[in-house]
Predict the structure.
Amino acid sequence: MLEKPLSPELRQRLQETLRRNPSQMTLQLARDLDVPEVEVIRAMPEGRSVEMDISRWQEIFERFAELGKVHVIVSNSSTTCEVVGEFGGFSTWGEFFNVQTPSLDMHLRPEHLAAVFAVEKPSHLEGNATPSSEECFSTTGSRRVTLSFQFFDRKGDSALKVFLNFGGKPTPERSAQFASIREQFRKS
């Protein structure tokens, strides 16, 4: 996917930064280190990002229709747009795969999608305190993480992100939905 792979030194720097500050915005870290955002996602500690099978992108989107309201973020170099809505109303027209419901109207160009990940990450909305990875991912059930599916283009830039929750502790239902989609489409 990338023209030039990351050097081992840069990959190690990414991993160390993510360990020190697991709630850092991946988009900002990518810009700070001048790397594609997909490489930040790939550098996350074991289990925090799981690559899924991008060849099954349409099936993944169809599963999103079962989720009800989700938080969708689309960013480019000059704008970030956040929408809370529901997936559905799927159709195709020319090069576009359309998502059209009363709350969400998107037109995707799937041939540009190159990777998708299921991501569990501490929310950057939790305030100024930076919890450790152990605090964020404790087995006591007090996880303060966001659960998202993140799509990337061929350059490694974010195409869109679909959040099942946006900060706070995910509900058991949301956690189960996330795990089901992640495992169904996990890249083998």
Notes: The chain has one domain: 50-184. Helices lie at 8-20, 26-33, 37-42, 57-64, 133-136, 172-184. The longest helix spans residues 8-20. Residues 50-184 form a domain with the Heme iron utilization protein-like fold fold (CATH 3.40.1570.10).
